[in-house]
Amino acid sequence: MKTIIVEGKRIRIQMWDTAGQERYETITTQYYRRAHGIILVYDITRQETFNNIRKWLRYVDEHANNNVQRLLLANKCDAEDERRVWKDQGARLAAEKNIKFYETSAQSNINIDEAFTEICRQILQTMSESNQNGSGMLSSAAGEAGSGAILLDTKNEVLPRSSCCY
């Protein structure tokens, strides 16, 4: 669980990292159904990770709810000398799939906060439009209290900034 502030709202997010491994395929499809947002990440130093993004996008399309927000991240942008996937390749794929795109570095904390803030913004907008319950809290997409990956309350607060990734 990680808590961040987005648009003055305290957001608790729960993340699952499957590292794109085939052995997690069955598990990930279960998580897709309840997810409000999915961040797909590839490594700019490994072409095969970018090549697999289309497959993972298909899985999201097949198993996630229709309102799930997606974000594409190209990680290790600080490893320019080892780059195998060019920025325009990622940007084109994101544009084709109508999703936001960031180049990031988890190690150097480049665009990490921005990416998580963006996906939370998208989720908040979608949830507000689809199922605001009027109590200052937004429930999960499935409507089950406590079952979702994002909770919203209206407290304004400042959190310390983390030094790396979430």
Automatic annotation (TrEMBL):
InterPro entries per UniProt: P-loop_NTPase, Small_GTP-bd, Small_GTPase, Small_GTPase_Rab
UniProt cross-references to Pfam families, sorted A to Z: Ras
Residue ranges the record marks as coiled coil: none
A molecular function (GO) term: GTP binding
SUPFAM superfamilies, per database record: P-loop containing nucleoside triphosphate hydrolases
Sorted UniProt keywords: GTP-binding, Lipoprotein, Nucleotide-binding, Prenylation
Family statement: Belongs to the small GTPase superfamily. Rab family.
Name recorded for this polypeptide: Ras- protein Rab-15
Organism name: Desmophyllum pertusum
